[in-house]
Amino acid sequence: TEGRSRYCFFTPDMDRDVRSREKSYRDLRLALADCDRQLMLYYQPIHDLNDGRMVGVEALLRWWHPERGLMGPAGFIRSAEESGLIEVLGEWVLRQAVRDARQWPDLRVAVNVSPTQLRSRQFVDMVRQVLSEAGLAPQRLELEMTETALMAASGEVARALSELRRMGIACALDDFGTGYSSLSHIRDFAVDRIKIDRSFVNVVDTDAGAALVEAIVSLARANGLCLTAEGVEAQEQHEFLRRVGCHEVQGYLLSPPVPASQISRMLQGRETH
Ligand code: C2E
Ligand code: CA
Ligand code: CA
Ligand code: CA
């Protein structure tokens, strides 16, 4: 019984969890080896609120899983983080996005960066190399990072951030409002842009929600930051955001994320109209 009790914490359930985790790591490794077929970037247009023009796109990762079909990042980014594969995956994303961006000379391309990537010592050099290999101006690239990423290991991350910005790459604070800090922390983040989270855009039809978004916009503007609102689904939200002085919008109202070819088509349509 002694020997038994030593192992009793290892239940069949946990065994299954470990196995399924190992399978998802293995699948992800296979996807990276077969990236041309299994991985793909979709792009969601970002529009200027003043003149309505498309000014940028956000790259959003998709995975054509051989058994499970099309998967969004919610289904695998965490397992990429846990397995350590996020660095290779993130580099693939950046390289692909920078390559695609060359066909859209007027657009800024925004790429999501995970906390692990940002903490990695090689990150800044990797970004510099990917840009120079593709011949893309750093000013065309924006990196989106969450508050969690910016808070973690402050010293190194702060150094990486200032080096990236010195190169001319813009940095955006993603999902603003969902993290730990209060409004007044806006000025403490060394970023160029704030992305207002969808959960706030969703409630601008309430007095409290409207007041909150208005406060975020005015505080950010007072600190010289650009603002993009995410998850804009309704015309009323769009109008509200323009009225309070938000700079850019992104959301299903304008377009869902689409394949690169469709972005090119949208830009062509714009030229001929
Ligand atoms: P995010 O960076 O906040 O990206 C916006 C998410 O909102 C996307 O989900 C997008 O499809 C969705 N969205 C856009 N407009 C609307 C709208 O009007 N309404 C609603 N309800 N949703 C909208 P997606 O593509 O599933 O990505 C989920 C998250 O996965 C992203 O959230 C980002 O945090 C992460 N992610 C995506 N691509 C990458 C990547 O290449 N690397 C890393 N590290 N994370 C990524
Ligand atoms: Ca993002
Ligand atoms: Ca976001
Ligand atoms: Ca989000």
From TrEMBL:
<protein>
    <submittedName>
        <fullName>EAL domain-containing protein</fullName>
    </submittedName>
</protein>
<feature type="domain" description="EAL">
    <location>
        <begin position="21"/>
        <end position="271"/>
    </location>
</feature>
